[in-house]
Specification:
- The chain is mainly β.
- The chain has one domain (2-14, 45-138): Lipocalin (Beta Barrel), CATH 2.40.128.630.
- It has no helices and 14 strands.
């Protein structure tokens, strides 16, 4: 769970709203792919979200909906931003108070890890791995 800068909201790991039903079948193993030993059938569309929870009430404060269930965690900053990534390769920043999307960048590959913040030459930088690359962002 990632707390907000003021301690009033928390941003738990992104929501993965998906169901899976597996059934007996013969499936060929292919090296380098996700393998469960059977085929999967989805009965409903899967989706995901980044969700802020109000610490005092325990209720959701906002949702930022994603088209597919994300694997990546999120990072909140003292500047009031929440950064995260999607399976579609979108690296995004949303307003920490409202969940309103403020910025996004297409990395060209799935984002499956949380972003990180670091200081370089006195300036804050945000890094994320997307696909087979690492992207670093900052304001000059």
């Amino acid at each position: 769970m990632e707390p907000s800068e003021k301690g009033t909201l928390v941003y738990p790991s992104p929501v993965r709203e998906m169901g899976s039903v597996y059934y007996k079948s013969s499936v060929e193993y292919r090296p380098g792919t996700y393998f469960t030993g059977s085929e999967k059938r989805l009965d409903e569309e899967s989706w995901g979200a980044v969700r802020a929870i109000d610490v005092k009430s325990g209720k959701p404060a906002w949702d930022f909906t994603l088209p597919t269930p994300p694997w990546a965690g999120v990072m909140s900053t003292a500047g009031g931003l929440v950064f995260g990534g999607s399976n579609e390769g979108n690296f995004y920043a949303v307003d920490a108070r409202s969940g309103k999307p403020l910025w996004q960048f297409q990395t060209g590959g799935a984002i499956r890890c949380a972003p990180m913040s670091f200081l370089s030459e006195g300036k804050q930088r945000i890094a994320v791995a997307g696909g087979h690359s690492i992207f670093v962002f900052g304001l000059d």
